[in-house]
Amino acid sequence: MAVTEQDVRQAEERMATLRRNGFALSARYDREADRIVIELSTGVQVAFPPRLAEGLAEAGPGDLAVIEISPSGLGLHWPTLDADLYVPAVLQGTLGSEGWMAAQRGTAGGRPRSGVKAAPVRENGRKGGRPPKAVAN
Questions:
Q1: Binning pLDDT at 50, 70 and 90, where does residue 60 land?
Q2: Which of 28, 69, 112, 119 is the most buried (most CB within 10 A)?
Q3: In the chain, which residue ranges form alpha helices assigned H by DSSP?
Q4: Any bridge partners for residue 47, and if so which?
Q5: What are phi and psi of 33, to 5 degrees?
Q6: Global pTM?
Q7: How far is CA 101 from CA 44, 46, 86, in A?
Q8: 39: burial class by Cβ within 10 Å (0-12, 13-18, 19+)?
Q9: Residue 73 DSSP class
């Protein structure tokens, strides 16, 4: 497939539109706070714990500290982890692929949110889980 001048121009226009909403000027791992911190061109800082991002959850501090910013400022790359995040998606709260994010929501949805609920859930799990519902005749 040949790329035309029009294709290039359209891609540059899309990138310019995305950059107007903010692009990364710097990115770092704050070891003390256990947060990835992104400084945007708008003056806003965005920070999130690495455990929430696909490819970063199991990484050590040394690997998290090495972050490359794409020339457009729209991408972050961790070369030692081969992990990438798209800055516009991060601003929308998307820290991974659609499948990975769905799996995270499913995991969180099934988690008991209080100690009062957690104990009976563990006990029920030891017994083999929730009994099947009776079928009405």
A1: very high
A2: 69
A3: 5-20, 61-64, 87-91, 98-109, 115-126
A4: 37
A5: -90, -10
A6: 0.68
A7: 24, 19, 14
A8: middle
A9: S
